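User: tokens in, sequence out, please.
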């Protein structure tokens, strides 16, 4: 028993000295002092020791345990100090170095304008709806009363993936999809990215954004359309803003109109911004064409409605007096910080 305890102590101290980190040191402690450790096994064998020898053997076991625990504690302290020194070296900070500047992002003028438009129409009870940017020709053209021979379907104006699928040229397909569901009445706004085959210049881009609105209910008239858009213009451009509606043609509305607002720079007196006219064209609108209702499963004899569409970039350009649309997409922080 004496020789066994001596061997255990020597082996334990050797392994303690060889352990290079705290995890290995803990493994040594468990191996010798744990419930299934070597020294614990010796204690369980005390029942086989003669009665008169038990005090002596017990003392030897306690001395061996004390030696191992002392070695463990001393080594643990050294390893902790070593680990702390290494941590300090890794985390050293040179306080003489200049601080790292945190550059904060900035909201894009398009997003600022969109949030403002959405706030206005949500306040009127409209719901914001979204739809796919890769759209069927059926929804992008046919259900909006744009027949197969219409110029808008020419490849010079539209990006075709195949003969039946296009990159949407407007967000009106979202309106057709919502009308198809037959959940009436409808008051919705559908903002989103659209695509047209345009060259990039100061006022055009092959990818831009539109905001289109739709109202469908019983008894909706052109007066409701005018009142809604007049209120929208006042909220967006100021309470003194006046509106003017000019007859126009859109395949999916009848009658149709383009809406002008009084120039918010000169108040309608005429200036360089409005080219001396006092008015600025802002959007297109009209009463939903009865044939569009029929193709979407709505009875035009029972329901009427109006629709309108405005370019998000156009609102941003006008509201913030930006003279080149390309500035919106160059990601120049010097430009963005102005808004």
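Assistant: Sequence out:
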């Amino acid at each position: 028993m004496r020789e066994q305890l001596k061997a255990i102590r020597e082996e334990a101290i050797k392994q303690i000295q060889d352990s290079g980190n705290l995890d290995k040191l803990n493994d040594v402690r468990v191996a010798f002092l744990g419930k299934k450790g070597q020294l614990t096994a010796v204690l369980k064998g005390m029942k086989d020791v003669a009665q008169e020898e038990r005090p002596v053997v017990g003392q030897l076991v306690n001395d061996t345990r004390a030696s191992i625990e002392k070695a463990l504690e001393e080594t643990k302290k050294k390893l902790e100090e070593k680990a702390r020194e290494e941590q300090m070296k890794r985390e050293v900070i040179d306080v003489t170095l200049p601080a790292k500047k945190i550059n904060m992002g900035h909201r894009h003028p398009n997003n600022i304008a969109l949030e403002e438009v959405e706030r206005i129409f949500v306040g009127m009870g409209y719901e914001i709806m979204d739809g796919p940017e890769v759209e069927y020709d059926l929804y992008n053209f046919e259900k909006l009363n744009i027949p197969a021979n219409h110029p808008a379907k020419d490849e010079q104006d539209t990006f075709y993936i195949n003969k039946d699928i296009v990159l949407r040229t407007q967000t009106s397909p979202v309106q057709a999809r919502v009308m198809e569901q037959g959940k009436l009445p409808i008051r919705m706004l559908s903002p989103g990215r659209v695509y047209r085959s345009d060259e990039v210049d100061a006022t055009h881009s092959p990818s831009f954004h539109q905001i289109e609105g739709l109202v469908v209910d019983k008894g909706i008239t052109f007066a409701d359309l005018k009142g809604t858009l007049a209120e929208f213009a006042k909220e967006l451009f100021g309470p003194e803003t006046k509106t003017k509606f000019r007859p126009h043609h859109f395949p999916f509305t009848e009658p149709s109109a383009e809406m002008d607002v009084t120039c918010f720079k000169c108040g309608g007196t005429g200036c360089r911004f409005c080219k001396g006219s006092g008015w600025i064209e802002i959007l297109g609108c009209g009463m939903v064409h009865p044939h569009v209702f029929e193709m979407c499963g709505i009875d035009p004899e029972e329901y009427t409605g109006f629709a309108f569409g405005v370019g998000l970039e156009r609102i941003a350009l006008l509201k913030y007096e930006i003279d080149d649309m390309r500035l919106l997409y160059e990601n120049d922080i010097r430009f963005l910080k102005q808004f």
